[in-house]
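Need tokens for this chain, all 230 residues.
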Amino acid sequence: MKKLILIIHLILIFTICKSQEISNDTILELNENDLYNCEIYENIYHCNVGPFDIDDNPIFMDERNFNISMTITNPKTDKSVEIPDEPSVYNLTVVKTKIILNKTTNVMDIEGFVEGGWHGAKSQVYVYIGNKVDTVSYIYLSPSLHGPIYYNGKKVKETNVIDTLPSFKFASYDKSISEVGFDDHKQRAFKISAKINENSILVFGQSSSYSEIFLIGKLLDDNMINMENE
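Here are the structure tokens for all 230 residues:
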């Protein structure tokens, strides 16, 4: 009887140790070094979600080849104003990032801070995880009630498509919103959790800013993990 109890006790100890070993192997803790090893499309895409928009269908547009030359004329003074074709664009940076990846469930929990972009009311950053789908965005130009608009030397009399931009959207996505950033509080805290696959991307978007985009699905590959974190 004592021998049987001893055997059962040893089996329980082995099972607990094996369970802990499996748990330690499947839960990985990563940081922004691992994240930036997966960065893609640097300084390319802009997020179409503005501070007052409802971001039910975010679109990310490549505007590198988009140039517009437009003149607005004041009908009362007959003075014309040239519209600049290269607006200022901000950069975003993800810092102090902590990533927990469950290799069994493929659930990734990410938290950290977003720096850069513009600051003030409604200056939050939208955070998405999903799989991208390539698409095209259409740029429209319409007449204005404030005065005549001339595009390429011709008066705009009706709404026209003046350009198309390479873009992408999400087939489906998980979303989070960071804190608002201010001049005296420039680091916006964020947190997001999602189940990922090998094609999943993590995107940080803010109007008038380049989106930060990471192919986080690569982190499911053990060869991509920073050796310092093992």
